[in-house]
Automatic annotation (TrEMBL):
<protein>
    <recommendedName>
        <fullName>5-hydroxyisourate hydrolase</fullName>
        <ecNumber>3.5.2.17</ecNumber>
    </recommendedName>
</protein>
<dbReference type="InterPro" id="IPR036817">
    <property type="entry name" value="Transthyretin/HIU_hydrolase_sf"/>
</dbReference>
<keyword id="KW-0378">Hydrolase</keyword>
<feature type="binding site">
    <location>
        <position position="9"/>
    </location>
    <ligand>
        <name>substrate</name>
    </ligand>
</feature>
<dbReference type="GO" id="GO:0006144">
    <property type="term" value="P:purine nucleobase metabolic process"/>
</dbReference>
<feature type="binding site">
    <location>
        <position position="108"/>
    </location>
    <ligand>
        <name>substrate</name>
    </ligand>
</feature>
<keyword id="KW-0659">Purine metabolism</keyword>
<dbReference type="InterPro" id="IPR000895">
    <property type="entry name" value="Transthyretin/HIU_hydrolase"/>
</dbReference>
<dbReference type="InterPro" id="IPR023416">
    <property type="entry name" value="Transthyretin/HIU_hydrolase_d"/>
</dbReference>
<dbReference type="InterPro" id="IPR023418">
    <property type="entry name" value="Thyroxine_BS"/>
</dbReference>
<dbReference type="Pfam" id="PF00576">
    <property type="entry name" value="Transthyretin"/>
</dbReference>
<dbReference type="GO" id="GO:0033971">
    <property type="term" value="F:hydroxyisourate hydrolase activity"/>
</dbReference>
<dbReference type="InterPro" id="IPR014306">
    <property type="entry name" value="Hydroxyisourate_hydrolase"/>
</dbReference>
<feature type="binding site">
    <location>
        <position position="47"/>
    </location>
    <ligand>
        <name>substrate</name>
    </ligand>
</feature>
<comment type="subunit">
    <text>Homotetramer.</text>
</comment>
<comment type="similarity">
    <text>Belongs to the transthyretin family. 5-hydroxyisourate hydrolase subfamily.</text>
</comment>
<comment type="function">
    <text>Catalyzes the hydrolysis of 5-hydroxyisourate (HIU) to 2-oxo-4-hydroxy-4-carboxy-5-ureidoimidazoline (OHCU).</text>
</comment>
Length: 111
């Protein structure tokens, strides 16, 4: 799969390392229902560059990160992190990083 119009990067801020091998799912909202566009795992650098189509349409998208799979038996509070966002200009690339620790998450619109 070529580079997606939507990409992500997960950093484990508690450990100070990329979050490797996190299952991630990309979905698009169609008539009020979510339709899966792709699924992948973060690579050794915590990145997912090929999860969905190379072009997207305007609308609402969401990335779901299976953080329970990442943390495993380690104590953690959130079993998943869900980031819902709107694509207004499909000509732009949308990079949606996730900063992760066992008890907090944060995200932003990256470049």
């Amino acid at each position: 799969m070529s580079r997606s119009a939507i990409t992500t990067h997960v950093l484990d801020t508690a450990a100070g390392v990329p979050a490797r091998n996190i299952p991630v799912r990309l979905e698009f909202r169609v008539a009020g229902n979510w339709r899966e566009l792709g699924a992948a795992h973060t690579d050794d650098d915590g990145r997912v560059s090929a999860i969905g189509p190379a072009t997207v349409t305007p609308g609402d998208y969401r990335l779901t990160f299976d953080t329970a799979a990442y943390f495993g038996a380690r104590e953690h509070f959130f079993p998943e992190a869900v980031v819902t966002f709107t694509v207004a200009d499909p000509a732009q690339h949308h990079h949606v990083p996730l900063l992760l620790s066992p008890f907090a998450t944060s995200t932003y619109r990256g470049s």
